[in-house]
Amino acid sequence: MNTRVSDYPAVVFASQEPPCLSLYQKTHRRHPENQQDPIRFRNLVKKLEESLAKMYPKREVAPLLQPFHDLAEDHRFWNHTFDGLAFLSAPGMFRLYKLQDEVKDIAVVSDSFYTKPLVRIFQSHERYQVLGLTRSEIRLFEGTKDSLDEIPLAEGVPRTMVEALGERVTSPHQTVASYGGTRGTAMHHGHGARKDEDGVDAERFFRIVDKAVLENHSGRSRLPLVLAALPENQGLFRQISQNQWLMDEGIVMNPGALESAALLEKARKIVEPQIRQRTEALLDEYADAHARGLGSADIEHVAQAAASGKVSVLFIDNDARIPGTLDRATGAVSPDVGGEPAAGDLLDDIGELVLQKGGVVRVIPAQTMPSRTGIAATFRF
Q: Nearest CA to 109 among 171, 200, 48, 195?
C-alpha cells in the first residue's frame, strides 16, 4: 500500500480508469499534535464521498472508499507518519505516499489524478538517500534539508546477508580439540581460514546489495546516494559498486551507532555542496543555451517545446503557481482564474510533460531561478 515517492512517474503516467480520487493531508510526527490527524483525514474522506455521490451510484462508491475507511481506523499507522500524506486511488488501485514535506489539505474527485504536490516533491533538488551498510545488514534512508527517515526496501532488495546469500553463506568449519587430559583446556582450531571466508561472503553480499539498490532505488529515483559504513566496508563496497549515483564522499562510521539527527547532519554536510554544484552546472548550461537561442523563459514557448520533446532540462520556481490548462499534444496554454484546487498549474503540467518526454525537471528556490517567469528551459535542439 505504501508507495515510494520515487515510483510516482510510473503510477501517474499510466492510464487509469476514472473516477480518480486524490487526497493530500498535512500530518504530524509526534504526540499530541498527531491526535487530530485521523479526524481531519475522515473529514477529507467525507468530501470525497460527497463528490462521488453526485456522479456515481452508491454501489460503486463504497468499494472506492473502503481502503480510506480501513486506514482511518488503523491507530498504529497514525502514530507513525511524517509531515504529509498523499493518496491516489481509482478502481482497482490504491496508492499511499508518506511525505517528508508539508502539503495543504485537499480532496479531489476527477477524471485524472491531481498530482501537483507530488510533482513538486518528486522533483525537489534537495532530496537524497543514505545507504547504511554493515557486513550483516543494510538500511536505506531518504532525506531532505530538514529530515531523514528510513524507507522500506523494495521487493527484491535483501536486508541481511542471510537473505542475500541463503544457504551459500560460508559455514564456520571449526573443530574443538582438548589437550592435557579430560581436565585440559579446550583449544579451538579454525580450519578453512574463517577470516578470508568472511571477506568472500561480504563481497558477495555487497555485490547483490549494490545491484538491487541500483535497480530498485537509485535507478528510479536518480537521487544522490551517501554511503554510511565503517572504513573497511566503504573500501570494499566502492570497489565493486556500479551505482553512478553513489557519492565519492561517505559517512565513515558504523551507521548503527548514529542517531537519526546525527546521521542527518553528517549527510547534509556531504550532500549540500554536491547538490549546489550540480544545480549550478545545469544553470550554467541554461545560460549558455539561452545565449545561443536554445533556451527560453517564456511559458508559451517552453510549453510548445515540451510538447515536441525539445526540452532537456526544465527549471520550475518552487514558490510560483500559474493557474491554467495545457494541451499536451500541442503545448497550447490557457489561463484559468477559477481558483479550484484541482485547477491545472501550468508549471507542474509542463513539468510532467517534460518528464514523460525523458527530460530532467528541477524545482528550485526563487532566488536561484534564472528568470522571473517561474520557468526556464534548456532545449535539445
A: 48
One domain, residues 307 and 371 = yes
Q: How many domains does the chain contain in total?
A: 3
In 3D space, the residue among 225, 169, 227 whose CA is nearest the CA of residue 198 turns out to be 169
Q: What value does the mean pLDDT take over residues 42-49? A: 97
Dist. CA 9–CA 355, nearest whole Å: 8
Query: 86 has which bridge partners?
Result: 24, 97
User: Is the backbone peptide bond immediately before 19 cis, with ω within 30 degrees of 0?
Assistant: yes
Cβ neighbours, 10 Å, residue 80: 9
> Does residue 178 belong to any structural domain of this protein?
no
Which residue segment(s) compose the domain that 23 sits in? 5-122
- Report if residue 373 sits inside a domain: yes
| Helices 194-213 + 231-240 axis angle, to 10 | 60
Assigned domain for 278 exists: no
DSSP 219-233: HHH---EEEEE-HHH
- Are 316 and 348 contacting, i.e. CB atoms less than 8 angstroms apart? yes
What are 99's three cell numbers?
511525505
CATH number at residue 340: 3.30.1330.30
Q: What is the pLDDT at residue 193?
A: 52
What is the spatial distance between Cα 147 and Cα 155, in angstroms, rounded to a whole number? 24
138 plus 254 within the same structural domain: yes
Q: Is the pLDDT of residue 225 over 50?
A: yes
Q: Is the domain of 133 the same as that of 106?
A: no
Distance CA 12, CA 15 (A): 8
3-state secondary structure at position 375: strand
Share of the chain above pLDDT 90, in %: 62
d(CA 86, CA 225): 25
The whole-model pTM stands at 0.73
Are 249 and 147 found together in one domain? yes
